[in-house]
Fold this protein.
Amino acid sequence: MTILSNDVLTVEVSGHGAELQSIRKGGVEYLWQGNPAFWGRRSPVLFPIVGSVWESRYRVNGTTYELGQHGFARDMDFELVSSSESEVRYRLTSSEETMYRYPFGFILEIAYRLHGNCLDVIWEVTNPTDKEIYFQIGAHPAFNYPDFDPQQSGRGFLAFDRSEGLECIRIKEKGCVDAQTKWPLEMASGRLKLEKDTFDAIDTIMLQDSQIRRVEMFREDGSPWLAVSFDAPVVGIWSPPGKVAPFICIEPWYGRCDRAGYEGEYKDKDWINCLAAGGKFESVYTIEIA
């Protein structure tokens, strides 16, 4: 475990999955601490897929591979590359083990950088091979609801950097989506009201096509709690349906699950990223604590 700290925040990161474990300010924990009764993880990195591939199978040049939801990076030990009081960097490199499930060479580096009341989460994917590689990558941080009371219905509010005309898609079956049907995201006074049953019928709110770039979370009384800013073209918002869970996930994605029934090539799936030989993909998203 690596600890980062400044005069505002204290952050903990594990080398297993290069996963964020804690964000504390003034003794208050903002990151969900994991509980299998609801969801056992805290902030896994999703790579080389986001969500599910249809029937847990995908095809590369006609060969079929099997891969579970969200890929394998979250369950692997990363190498510690560097560490200071304000930044830590980890690396995962392709191996015989990863090639068995994902036939592409890669170098994945994940870094965390503290500045003031913000934490930058940095992703770098390098293609060390002489051929194109394809991948998806995404975040899955879970944030505690402020002042959580399981007996109360209200969970606060979300606000976005766009408040009108938002459309989402939904899971259809086997963790895959109906990509054709767009559902309007109902807002009130520019905010999305969160209730204990908000996710019971919809499972995940998925907004794609870069409709939003910032999600702000507010307490019931309207005071700010935290915000997540990103450049990713897709974002998922999720809390376990039917469980009255004490947290919500705000998830920037470069990719998403397959559309239901998809049996085409991996390189042709929705929201796939292509990296040329020797190329590098770089991205960052920021968690801001109020």
User: Anything to note?
Assistant: The radius of gyration is 19 Å.
